[in-house]
Write a sequence for this structure.
């Protein structure tokens, strides 16, 4: 059983590695610039994608950004100098579509990380970063995956967002040591 689990983990890591190699670096660079220019960065996503977005918000906060998770009680109003960054495989989740429309109506910038750039949210977005993967119903599969539902997208999302943090750290000449000042200390 352990060796089978290990073989599955190796196969999953191979899928993630292949997916990351397919990412358009120009799209990723444009997203990094939008994040750098934003007064505040608001993140959103549903389900497991939402968890990956929360992890990204935490790292942004540790870098000194004003970063918020949409739906949390301490999240302020979004405005014209702000960025809403949505992680959504399908780009069609109704609650996220409503959020995207609201952000645009308030003149905020909108960015999407997705499998489907031509989705409802993708068409509204000022910047889109396309990731390979499959949505939860396997529609729009852009590669092969042995994993269930949208696992490959969610894992790739986390890895790409961690890579984005490294890019932003480099752009700002920050080190991990600089970030520990903002690390939680009430635990």
């Amino acid at each position: 059983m352990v060796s089978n689990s290990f073989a599955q983990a190796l196969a999953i890591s191979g899928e993630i590695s292949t997916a990351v190699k397919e990412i358009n670096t120009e799209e990723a660079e444009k997203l990094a610039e939008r994040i750098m220019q934003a007064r505040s960065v608001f993140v959103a996503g549903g389900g497991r994608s939402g968890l990956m977005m929360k992890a990204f918000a935490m790292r942004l906060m540790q870098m000194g950004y004003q970063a918020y998770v949409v739906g949390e009680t301490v999240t302020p109003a979004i405005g014209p100098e702000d960025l809403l960054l949505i992680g959504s495989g399908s780009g069609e989740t109704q609650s996220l579509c409503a959020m995207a429309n609201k952000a645009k109506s308030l003149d905020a910038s909108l960015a999407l990380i997705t499998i489907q750039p031509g989705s409802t949210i993708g068409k509204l977005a000022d910047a889109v970063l396309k990731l390979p993967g499959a949505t939860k119903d396997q529609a729009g599969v852009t590669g092969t995956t042995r994993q269930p539902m949208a696992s490959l997208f969610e894992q790739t999302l986390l890895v790409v967002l961690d890579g984005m943090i490294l890019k932003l750290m480099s752009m700002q000449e920050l080190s991990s040591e600089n970030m520990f000042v903002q690390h939680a200390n009430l635990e």
Summary: The domain at 2-182 is CATH 3.40.50.10490 (Rossmann fold). Residues 151-172 form the longest helix (22 residues). DSSP finds seven helices and five strands in the chain. The chain has one domain: 2-182.
